[in-house]
Amino acid sequence: MFITLEGPDGSGKSMQVPALSEFIRSLGYQVLTTREPGGTFIGDQIREVIMRMDNTSMHPRTEILLFCAARAQIVAEVIRPQLEQGVVVISDRYADSTLAYQGYGHGIDLTVLRQILSFATGGLVPDLTLLFDVDVETGLSRRQSGGGEWNRLDDYAVAFHRRVRNGYLELAAAEPARWLRIDAAQTPARVQEDLQKAILTRLGPRS
Ligand code: TMP
Hints:
The chain is of the alpha/beta class. The chain has helices at 13-26, 41-51, 60-84, 95-105, 110-121, 136-143, 155-174, 188-202; strands at residues 2-6, 31-35, 88-92, 128-133, 179-183. The protein has a five-stranded parallel β-sheet with strand order 2-3-1-4-5, sandwiched between helices. Helix 3 runs parallel beside helix 5. The longest helix is centred in the middle third of the chain and has 25 residues, at 60-84. The model is unreliable at 147-153 (pLDDT under 50). The structure holds thymidine-5'-phosphate. Residues 9, 36-37, 67, 93, 97-98, 101-102 line the site of thymidine-5'-phosphate (TMP).
């Protein structure tokens, strides 16, 4: 089973990964967790290029292709082989991040993005996508050290994150069988409870 975690910046998804994977292990499954961009030797080098603060002149198309290059590598090298072995794979971000951020956020044509994503992933679609949904102000203030400083961000950043969040909600509404919305404004413990409940309805103890 291939599970992906998606959500805007500051949605708190990454901190939930260790307890979630431990829970799935307790049901008798082998679990592998990965993160994007990166997660392979080659992907980590691509991540560095994407994240470098001085790469300010990076063209949006270059950025998309780099995200997708790192994704192609991790799908081929790690995710597909592990799924074939019956391992439950949890990926912290996947193709839907590109649709939400580059598509809805930056306005790149969604049809074109879907073609690039299908090429990069060889058509691998998650079985379950957990959307960590939180309003933009809460998400951004969680990202600021000390909190409460989100209002110093310029309007563009807030508007961008609003488009990303709405994009996620639209993607989830279009494919309700795959997506599940988690209220990420709750305490971390409550979020973990909701995650475990969601997993239990789809993945019983291993027979
Ligand atoms: P995060 O995983 O710590 O949230 O950081 C990854 C950042 O990269 C986050 O701001 C979302 C962004 N991103 C994209 O814009 N497109 C993508 O395809 C992926 C995987 C991430």
